[in-house]
Design brief:
It is a single chain. By secondary structure, the chain is an alpha+beta fold. It contains 17 helices and four strands. A hairpin with a 5-residue loop joins strand 1 and strand 2.
């Protein structure tokens, strides 16, 4: 049998950690990824029909010489890995194996490599330093001091993105979570926006998550809240406890803000688990059909959501609901008329 990527990257003096990078950064066990490689299971967290994967490799005796790779691997219609892509990467690694630069060069000019956006990159580096137990960036201390109230309130514009990401990934250290909670409602809007977006990759404790949800509910009551702030707070809640997240999502869906494109996209891409509840899914589809994302947004968002094995049958069932509105019926008709497949191929 052909060698697996996980086998090639893990050897005596190498450690490997794998992360899903699609919607939010989350750990992916090596066992799960191995089963995906062997085509025994579909990729569990597909996003835009791909597996977006971050690989962290290091030697325990030289943690500062770690390697980070980002791979975007195509999936078939059932979410299984397209083997040709994996084979290509394995072959590149094998060809480079004779070279001491091996793993460093293996992804040069690789068609499956990708570069995450700045926020994700900062969060990944912060997570990597936590995993390797190496120090945070030099910007971290500034953020700690600012959120502890030790710096002037207008100092926020000097805070570096990497420092903010380091702080969010270290919420469980010292009084970090407590300080953020105390300052949350007084933060300047651009800083709140940035912290909320970074929080999607972390798991805020119940008290902080509840405070984020309360702030979101408060902002939903105001008619002049920027939609991108609502979207950012939705993202901040997606990694925490289901109950707090789901109650907040119900409030969002019941508000006019759910018609805003960035708000509905945040719900779809970050809180897809809470759409498994039929009534919530039905309301989501109604708002998506009536909202500012338009027909193109409707098609794109559903094309992505129907790739998720747990959601596909529920969405198809919602499509057949006799109580659906004319607006939703029209949007479904347009989507199906554009040649969209609702069957998928059997594997």
């Amino acid at each position: 049998m052909e060698k697996l990527l996980t086998q090639l990257l893990q050897h005596d003096d190498n450690r490997l950690r794998i992360f899903d990078m699609g919607r939010r950064i989350s750990k992916l066990s090596i066992d799960t990824f191995t089963q995906v490689e062997q085509n025994r299971i579909p990729y569990p967290l597909p996003f835009l029909h791909h597996a977006w994967v971050g690989l962290l490799l290091w030697n325990p005796s030289a943690k500062d010489q770690n390697l980070i790779w980002f791979l975007k691997l195509p999936l078939d219609e059932q979410g299984y890995l397209i083997q040709a892509a994996r084979d290509d990467i394995v072959n590149r690694l094998l060809q480079n194996a004779i070279d001491p630069q091996a793993e460093q060069d293996a992804l040069k000019d690789n068609p499956f490599a990708f570069t995450p956006d700045q926020e994700k990159m900062a969060s990944f580096h912060a997570l990597a330093s936590c995993t390797l137990k190496t120090p945070a960036s030099r910007y971290y201390e500034d953020v700690q001091q600012y959120l502890a109230g030790q710096l002037e309130s207008d100092y926020w514009s000097n805070l570096g993105l990497q420092g903010l990401a380091d702080f969010v990934m270290r919420l469980d250290q010292g009084d970090n979570a407590l300080h953020l909670r105390k300052r949350l409602t007084q933060l300047p809007e651009p800083l709140l926006l940035m912290l909320a977006r970074l929080l999607e990759h972390a798991q805020p404790n119940a008290a902080l998550q509840q405070q984020l949800a309360d702030l979101l509910l408060q902002l939903l009551q105001q008619s002049d809240t920027p939609p991108e702030l609502i979207a950012a707070l939705i993202r901040s809640l997606c990694g925490g406890r289901d109950k707090i997240r789901d109650q907040a999502m119900d409030a969002v869906l019941a508000s006019p803000y759910s018609l805003e494109a960035e708000v509905i996209v945040a719900l779809a891409t970050r809180c897809h688990k809470c759409l498994e509840e039929p009534q919530r899914l039905q309301l989501f589809l109604e708002q998506l059909a009536a909202g500012k994302a338009g027909q193109l947004g409707f098609n794109r968002i559903l094309s992505d959501l129907m790739f998720l094995a747990d959601l596909r049958p529920r969405i198809l069932e919602a499509f057949r609901d006799p109580k659906r509105s004319d607006t939703l019926s029209r949007a479904i008709g347009e989507m199906l008329g554009s040649g969209f497949s609702t069957t998928g191929h059997t594997h």
